[in-house]
Amino acid sequence: MLDSLRSAVRIDELRSKLLFTLAMLFVFRIGAHIPVPGVNTEVFAKLLQTGALFGFFDVISGGAFKNFSIFAMSITPYINASIIMQLLTVVIPSLERLAKEGEEGRKKIVQYTRYLTVVLAFIQAIGISFALRNQHVLVSPTVGHYLLVALTLTAGTAFLMWIGEQITEKGIGNGISLLIFAGIVSRVPAGVVRVVEYLRAGTINILSVILLLVIGALVIAAIVAVNEGQRRIPVQYAKRVVGRRVYGGQSTHLPLRVNQAGVIPVIFASSILMFPEQLATWFQNTWFGNWYLAFFAWGTPLHTIIYALLVIGFTYFYTAVIMNPVDIAENIKKYGGFIPGIRPGRPTAEYISRVMSRVTLAGAIFLALIAILPNFVLLATRIPQIYFGGTALLIVVGVALDTMKQVESHMLMRSYQGFIR
């Protein structure tokens, strides 16, 4: 990795892309500290300590939600809009046809995703503004002030979406993912300072810190192994004679990734479980609040089991949405290919579906273990108020691997161009 970075810095084009990406990330971090006008940030910071849902948003936004800055909602509405568009592409035939039209169709879908992002961001901002009306966070709880806060948050999300697209087009790529990556990594120094303070106060010992580092290294290694893991199905293409030339006849493979769904199932499951917990925290003195916090609070056995089952279920669901065995089998047949020992058409689709189910099971179990990892890390290290989330590690490691692949692809393309010249 370090050798690739050194080589990339020596190339003028890649160096300018890297500098542009760093400049955009710097703008993002500056905006994370610009507060929304008319908001009492101290009261809001105390409110964050009363629920896991707000803490989860704060991790994704890199502290911008805690500061209630203009980037408080981060890029979450864009992620939700992208997921909704993917689901609608499967359900609505016109969008499905649009997705198969190549580059022009992809641009149309991206444009629809932008519009949907602004709509979702405004709805979410209005919801946040009205949810805080009884918490003494807004200085002047009037209709005009609600609208000001909502428009400011929506504009911040739209600006972040623009930054992400600029990084994708003019920077190193993966703009939206890099924004989430930068937000999570920005919290690492504060966590290190907190650990040092605990060591000085005698709250923890050095063995707990060493154990935390060892667990972190093992988890990172496991994430890399699973993200890079593939089940390769061999595909053979028949020879075709066109005039005096022979086309095809080569052997290739169909890669099925172990973790095809990425981190999306964990985010889905977390959001579903955190929302009722946040409601129960607001209504602690009611029968619902007491009952829910007693049996389904974060860290309880029931919560852990339900969390793991939801992650496994969403992994299968999202993998089925983004990977259609019937379409894959049709494309293989269209270009004259076949899987050795399997008839083209429906038998090929059924074979791919069976293999995908077995591979997805391994990925789903891995994601479930990563999701419930913080419970066991807290019991093993007993380090209080240290966020060691498997979700955050999964995002950071995945984005780092994708970014390095982007850098290497740019370097490889430059080598090909130099060879042709």
Automatic annotation (TrEMBL):
Where is it located?
Answer: Cell membrane; Membrane
- Bilayer topology annotation: Multi-pass membrane protein
Q: Tell me where it mainly resides.
A: membrane
Q: What GO terms in the biological process aspect are recorded for it? A: intracellular protein transmembrane transport; protein targeting; protein transport by the Sec complex
Q: Which Pfam families match?
A: SecY
A single GO CC term, please? plasma membrane
- Report the transmembrane regions from the record: 18-36, 68-92, 112-132, 144-164, 176-196, 202-226, 254-275, 295-318, 359-380, 386-404
Keyword line:
Cell membrane, Membrane, Protein transport, Translocation, Transmembrane, Transmembrane helix, Transport
Per the similarity annotation, which family is this?
Answer: Belongs to the SecY/SEC61-alpha family.
PANTHER family named among the record's database cross-references: SECY/SEC61-ALPHA FAMILY MEMBER
Relate the assembly described in the record.
Component of the Sec protein translocase complex. Heterotrimer consisting of SecY, SecE and SecG subunits. The heterotrimers can form oligomers, although 1 heterotrimer is thought to be able to translocate proteins. Interacts with the ribosome. Interacts with SecDF, and other proteins may be involved. Interacts with SecA.
Give the protein's biological function: The central subunit of the protein translocation channel SecYEG. Consists of two halves formed by TMs 1-5 and 6-10. These two domains form a lateral gate at the front which open onto the bilayer between TMs 2 and 7, and are clamped together by SecE at the back. The channel is closed by both a pore ring composed of hydrophobic SecY resides and a short helix (helix 2A) on the extracellular side of the membrane which forms a plug. The plug probably moves laterally to allow the channel to open. The ring and the pore may move independently.
Q: List the HAMAP family hit by this protein, alphabetically.
A: SecY (MF_01465)
Give the protein name, as stated in the record. Answer: Protein translocase subunit SecY
